[in-house]
């Protein structure tokens, strides 16, 4: 994977092959950040990266100036890799090793952007639990957004707080906002 833009532009980050991840493609990531670039000043926001995996999305936020990023993943190898990469590049990324749903149930963290990239084979019930917990626990700051990445075979448009989706190849980003 590579960082698309910002101070770490073009840096390649190679994750260990044994991590249970499916990193967001460069094309989809670039398209997502083109949308976000029109909504936020990256140096003024906070980000929560759920199902963080390799930290791919978080590195892109840091490269563009975001200084307050929290990554949550239940896999020790993923958290270890994110910590090692953040340390090597001197990136301000906090990590939490936790089941994402348990974290969402207990957390009082509020951020401007919550990005969730759960396994594509999640059930509709598992997908719906993400926005349900985020909005129930008021985890978004004013004008904040929740973005859930999923496959084209999953439709989240019937969930509460759904606003719109953008499709990039087999990747879909669904955007949720406070009504």
TrEMBL record:
SUPFAM superfamilies: S-adenosyl-L-methionine-dependent methyltransferases. It is an enzyme of class 2 (transferase). InterPro entries: DNA_methylase_N6_adenine_CS, RNA_MeTrfase_RsmD, SAM-dependent_MTases_sf. Keywords: Methyltransferase, Transferase. The keyword Transport does not apply. GO terms for molecular function: 16S rRNA (guanine(966)-N(2))-methyltransferase activity; nucleic acid binding. Pfam families: Cons_hypoth95 (PF03602). Its EC number is 2.1.1.171. This is 16S rRNA (Guanine(966)-N(2))-methyltransferase RsmD. It comes from Flavivirga rizhaonensis. The gene is rsmD.
């Amino acid at each position: 994977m590579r960082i698309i833009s910002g101070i770490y532009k073009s840096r390649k980050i190679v994750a260990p092959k044994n991590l249970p991840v499916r990193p967001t493609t460069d094309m989809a990531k670039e398209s997502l950040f083109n949308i976000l670039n029109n909504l936020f000043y990256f140096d003024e926001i906070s980000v929560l990266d759920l199902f963080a995996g390799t930290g791919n999305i978080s590195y892109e936020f840091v490269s563009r100036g975001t200084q307050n990023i929290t990554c949550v993943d239940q896999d020790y190898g993923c958290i270890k890799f994110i910590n090692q990469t953040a340390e090597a590049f001197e990136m301000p990324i906090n990590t939490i090793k936790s089941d994402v749903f348990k974290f969402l149930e207990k957390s009082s963290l509020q951020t401007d952007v919550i990005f969730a990239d759960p396994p594509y084979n999640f059930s509709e019930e598992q997908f719906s639990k993400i926005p349900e917990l985020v909005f129930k626990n008021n985890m978004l700051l004013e004008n904040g957004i929740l973005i859930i990445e999923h496959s084209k075979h999953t439709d989240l448009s019937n969930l509460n707080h759904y606003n719109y989706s953008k499709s990039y190849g087999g990747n879909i980003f669904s955007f949720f906002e406070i009504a």
